[in-house]
Write a structure and sequence with these properties.
Arc Repressor Mutant, subunit A, elongated, single chain, 99 residues, alpha+beta
Length: 99
């Protein structure tokens, strides 16, 4: 995984907006289209699309095309690896301070 600081900053950008957090929340159950997300979170479709673009750039969501529809879902694998790595680094730093 690339430099942890850069990855955490990228994740922070993705999560650093209330609308994007609500979009992620809406995806916690299953994959959804832009229109489904828009209805669920009460945000206009163009705004949802713009926020999904940022979430994709941050690797927090993935998109899969099924026919004419694109379904978005949380990138659980990436987020889990990143958070696990962060926790390990925090744990190592804490252990080093105790010694």
């Amino acid at each position: 995984m690339p430099d942890l600081c850069k990855e955490i900053a990228k994740m922070g950008k993705g999560l650093g907006n209330e609308n994007r957090y609500h979009i992620l929340e809406s995806l916690m159950g299953d994959a959804k289209t832009v229109s489904e997300i828009s209805r669920k979170v009460g945000i206009a479709q163009p705004a949802v699309s713009q926020n999904l673009k940022i979430l994709k750039e941050a690797d927090l969501v993935t998109a899969k095309r099924k026919g004419k529809e694109v379904y978005y879902s949380i990138n659980v694998t990436y987020m889990t690896k990143l958070l696990r790595r962060l926790a390990e680094d925090v744990g190592k730093n804490k252990q080093n301070k105790i010694k």
